[in-house]
UniProtKB/TrEMBL annotation:
This is N-succinylornithine carbamoyltransferase. Keywords: Amino-acid biosynthesis, Arginine biosynthesis, Transferase. SUPFAM superfamilies: Aspartate/ornithine carbamoyltransferase. The gene is argF'. The keyword Transferase applies. Homotrimer. Residues 183-307 form the Aspartate/ornithine carbamoyltransferase Asp/Orn-binding domain. GO terms for biological process: citrulline biosynthetic process; L-arginine biosynthetic process via ornithine. The lineage of its organism: Bacteria, Pseudomonadati, Bacteroidota, Saprospiria, Saprospirales.
Length: 312
């Protein structure tokens, strides 16, 4: 792969899952592949899991790694033709070109503005890095998607499903801040592209995801109806796509024990970080059906599989 931005970049999702599981079984089995090569991880936003798991994955493949917190660096300009006499000191044309001099794979995290829908949904920042970098680019969460998380979620579901296809529910959940739609968009995109789950998305009215991500999924606005008989409950908050970036005030959408009792003894999943007793009750996340730490663990193997496939 020359880029890893979405499910569309992956020729065979099952083959990538198999590679991740092979790395999980033998973490240093491909330790030679990154020898004398460099991965740069560029973060415009906070991270715990993505930062740690991508560094660990790169090192296990034999790569050296530099992680750079770009929020503390030179302000980068993304518009073409601007007179740069404001706060941005360096254009992405140079920034991406320069970083390409120092690494063999460039990984980038850049969240959406949640104010400029067009710029966000064109994924302008990630696309600019792809355009101006001369090395392969891996998304560590862009304005619209979080593909390393979604690959992880496929692996985790593959490891725990009993029936094929399992009934998987992506549910909107409350949150005190307005959050990106990326994790939910990407989860829907990957589940549908994978084709091995029966996906239902449930969210309050006004919080439907962008249609490009949900075509083929059942979308309902009643959480109890969606939860009935589910095998996996994947919780996530997202701000409104329709009324772009608006926050939703629906505290009754928290995932709790009473709602989980409607399911087929479902597993609980969340990408983390999660707000306890807002998104999910302590009782659910602390139960033996919670897969959140297994998901966090699988981030390493997902990243290892992806880094191992990147070619210039
Ligand atoms: N990387 C996974 C989730 C990242 C981000 N969550 C957050 O910003 C949560 C922040 C908070 O809880 O304040 C999101 O929803 O896309
Ligand atoms: N799930 C996830 O991407 O976590 P971080 O934001 O901490 O990297």
């Amino acid at each position: 792969m020359k880029q890893f931005l979405s499910a569309a970049d992956v020729p065979d999702i099952n083959a990538l899952i198999a590679k991740a599981r092979a790395h999980k079984a033998k973490p240093f089995g491909s330790n030679h592949s990154g020898q004398q090569k460099m991965v740069i991880n560029l973060f415009f936003n906070s991270s715990l899991r993505t930062r740690m798991s991508t560094e660990k994955a790169a090192r296990q493949l034999g790569y050296d790694v530099i992680t750079y917190d770009a929020s503390g660096g030179w302000g980068i300009e993304f518009e073409d033709g601007t007179v740069m006499n404001g706060n941005t000191a360096e254009h992405v044309r140079e920034a991406a070109g320069v970083l390409s001099q120092y690494c063999d794979i460039l990984c980038v995290r850049s969240f959406p503005s949640l104010t400029d829908k067009d710029a966000d949904y064109e994924d302008r920042i990630m696309k600019a890095f792809v355009k101006y970098a001369s090395v392969p680019v891996v998304s560590m969460e862009s304005a619209t998607r979080h593909p390393l998380q979604s690959l992880t979620d496929c692996i985790t579901i593959a490891e725990h499903r009993k029936a094929v296809p399992p009934r998987v529910v992506l549910t909107w959940a409350p949150h005190p801040r307005r959050l990106p739609q990326c994790v939910a968009n990407s989860f829907a995109e990957w589940m549908l592209a994978w084709g091995e789950v029966d996906l239902t998305i449930c969210n309050p009215e006004g919080f439907d995801l962008a249609p490009e991500f949900t075509k083929g999924a059942k979308v309902v606005h009643n959480q109890a109806e969606a939860f009935a008989g589910a095998d996996f409950i994947y919780a996530k908050n997202w701000s409104s796509f329709e009324d772009y970036g608006a926050i939703g005030d629906f505290p009754g959408w928290q995932v709790d024990e009473a709602k989980m009792a409607l399911t087929n003894n479902a597993y609980f999943m969340h990408c983390l970080p999660v707000r306890r007793n807002v998104v999910v009750s302590d009782g659910v996340i602390d139960s033996d059906r919670s897969l959140v730490l297994q998901q966090a663990n699988n981030r390493t193997w997902a990243a290892q599989a992806v880094l191992g496939e990147m070619r210039g």
